[in-house]
Write a structure and sequence with these properties.
Length: about 600
Amino acid sequence: MESFRFCFLMLTIAILASPALSDLVLSKVDRRIYLTSHIVRISSTMKVENAGSEKESKVLLAFPEQQAKNMAYLIATPHEGKGKGKNPVVALPVEAANPKDMPAALTLYSVSLPKGLAEGDSFTFDVLAVFTHALRPIPEQITQADIQLVLYQDSAHYLSPYAVKVQSLSVKLPDSRIESYTKLENTKIHGSEIKYGPYENIPSFSYSPIAVHFESNLPFAVAHELVREIEISHWGNVQVTEHYKLIHGGAQSKGEFSRLDFQARPNVRGASAFRYLVANLPPRAHSVYYRDEIGNISTSHLRGDSKKTELLIEPRYPMFGGWRTAFTIGYGLPLQDFLFESDGKRFLNITFSSPMVELVIDALIVKVVLPEGSSDISVAAPFPVEQWQETKISHLDIDGRPVVVLKKTNVVPEHNQFFQVYYHFSQLSMLREPLMLISGFFFFFVACIVYMHADISISKSSASYLAKQQWEEVQAVIQQVQNIISRCLTTHDNLEASLRDLSRTGNIQACKAARKAADGLLKELSKELKPLLTFLQSSPSAAQVLPKVEELVAKERELQEKVMVKHSTVVDGYEKKLGARDIENRVALQQQKLTALRQEVDDLLEFIDEI
């Protein structure tokens, strides 16, 4: 509030010294400020009269500098009056003006009238000004359970370089819950509407500050950046892809967030958050998707009729003040609804901005991807935009597709107007991709035919074939060696199991029988192993792996000997009727060596298996 009073003081000092610019007089001004959204719209109906002798053809509109910085859209149209038909209205030309002797604290625009006003003539016209970021959250930070209060500041008197005979102002709010508002002479309040005036005979550059502090829990949806890509395919489709970086532009959320409280009482524990957005897509939109970097988001609903297709989307989480999210929306459109021909050129006629309802876009980038081979490109936009061209390489492209890039900042729904992209495209260029596909398949089948009829096998007498065959034989022998070693280890495990049975039952004869069977089996395995080792020693292909195989066999034999020694020691102890503690002490050292040897054998088996 203090900064507002300071700005008002500086503005008052500046405009009091400013003289009237002409003999024009505003005989009646009716202003309506709509605060029913986070986008502020001021609609004014003005009747201007020429009280001088010179003919006047332009009317100046004045805005405080701070307010002008937030102005996103300004249009002036002739006033049609009530009860008249909805005929197309041609906007009056509006351009920035910089007359002399005007204070720097004011920004002025000039409206060109359809015809000059002679002495005593009058003309009534409407002015719509749209502002973004004009509502200031007070307090700036709130908790999950708090409602959102915002402050709007303006003037009860219409700021104009001309004298005003009669003027009135109405401020329309989202609802009747008003925290405070400035009370002046002739101030009335009716539900959610505050009326100031009428005020009569107001001098030029009159400024009477007002402030309205009210509750507004409407979605403060702001797209920090939106990239729209519109790709034209002459095969019948216009593909639109929109990448959003969204933020809740209201009061910043502080404290912890409880989803349980939010789901239980969303209107109380999340009144300031918005849970969904609505996009009005063109009619006959198809193949609609809604996803983010994680994947597809299923919380969306689509319904349509002959006039529009409505897409309701819900972010993955409720959006509180300051929270951000990023997502992508895509859909296809019938080509015949948006692509036309005129004077030998094709042109795309499509809307410029986002289909989202009441969305503020800080930076909007529109990319129109034309078919490869397009030339002589031009753009017709209803408002100034930055423009440049790029190239996009896509599937089956040779030179790439030309891309027309348009950029505009501070975009509001009023900017969602049709614009046109003109280009020349030859019908023969449409045959490029089909011919590429046909040629590709043709050469592919030719290559398959050549491959099927060509003999590219390796000769059985070649050195590479023989080396491969020898290595395969070596691999088979090594596999047999591994199997024999594994069977030996299994026999060792059986001997260990017989010792455990001996300690449990005391049956010495059964233990000796197990020892006898193991001795016979190990001898047979040793016989099977000898010819395999002889083959590996004689094969040049086994030179690399032979040392490890021989080491494996030696370690297994050493392990076998120590297992037999342990077995004999334990059986001898039981025959002498020694205690279990004494027997364990006699074989403790042997057991340590057995464990170490078994680990070495397992490691060698694993190493040889990897080779």
